[in-house]
Every structure is written in C-alpha cells, then in structure tokens.
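Record 1 of the preview.
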Amino acid sequence: MKAFPNPFVDRVNFQIKSNADGPVLVEVYNTAGQRLDLLYNGNMRKGETRNLVYIPRQGGTEAVIYRVTTNGKTFSGKLIKRLR
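->
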C-alpha cells in the first residue's frame, strides 16, 4: 500500500496491491475520527493492484488519516496537507 505525495496539496494517490483474495475497504478520516470519504469497498484478487485518488473538499482539514482493511487486518497512516 502506497499513499503519495505526503505532504499533499490538492490530491492523494493510493496504490493498493492485494496479498490475498478477499474484501478491501479504503477510508479517509479527519483527525477527529469523522469519515470524510470511502474510496473503495469491494473484493480484490491476490496480486491485483488498484489506483485510487482522494481529492479533499475545499476548506478541509490540515491532516487526514487513511485506513485500509483487508483480510481481517487494518493498516493506517497520516497524510499532511501542505498549505499553499
């Protein structure tokens, strides 16, 4: 799983590669824990790659948390919005 660039200005690219067949959920949250976006909710096959783009709404927060859930495991990370 890759999320780039970090810091970001107007969009974040996600590249997800599945290690096994099964459901995948990709979500973006603000630092208060409110879900901002659901980027993907579906099944992927082992070895399959998906490219997703998150474009924050105007006036969004300065940092977001992404969460990827697959095969009973959850991975998360923090992305910082660069002010212009």
